């Protein structure tokens, strides 16, 4: 007898913390999208996009992949700190999760985060951002 197991992995995040430097995005708000991709087709389409291309095409991509692509949008101002608990993202299984940041400076401004565990820390700097896992407190 064959059993069908759900595809993808459950996220091992305890939450996402976001810290914006006082000069983040050249002293401008930063739009962030946390994107959940539930199959290889959506991953292949999105993984090579720069943040600028993601933000320009996200509505169309969501229509093209309505069952396999979801995202959560947040805007963070310079100096702001916030935390999103894991419950904000549900218990869905994903093939991949990515964060895109809409910076004024050129660059890819995307990070894949589905393999991170504990608290995921997003640090928004003047011209770019970093994402690092931290031990849950």
From TrEMBL:
Name the record gives this protein: Uncharacterized protein
Q: Lineage of this protein's species? A: Bacteria, Pseudomonadati, Pseudomonadota, Betaproteobacteria, Burkholderiales
Superkingdom of origin: Bacteria
């Amino acid at each position: 007898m064959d059993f069908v197991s759900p595809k993808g992995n459950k996220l091992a995040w305890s939450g996402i913390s976001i810290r914006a430097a006082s000069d983040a995005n050249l002293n401008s708000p930063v739009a962030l999208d946390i994107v959940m991709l539930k199959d290889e087709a959506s991953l292949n389409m999105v993984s090579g996009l720069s943040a600028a291309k993601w933000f320009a095409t996200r509505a169309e991509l969501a229509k093209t992949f309505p069952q396999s692509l979801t995202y959560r949008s947040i805007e963070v101002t310079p100096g702001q700190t916030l935390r999103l608990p894991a419950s904000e993202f549900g218990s869905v299984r994903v093939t991949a999760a990515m964060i895109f940041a809409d910076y004024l400076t050129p660059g890819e401004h995307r990070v894949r985060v589905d393999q991170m565990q504990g608290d995921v820390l997003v640090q928004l700097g003047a011209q770019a951002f970093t994402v690092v896992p931290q031990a849950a407190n």
